[in-house]
Amino acid sequence: MPDATPAPSPGDPEPGPSGTPGPAVTPAGKRDSEDRTTERQMWWNLAYFLFGIHLVALIMIYAVRHHG
Question: Which structural domain, as residue segments, surrounds residue 34?
Answer without folding.
Answer: 26-68
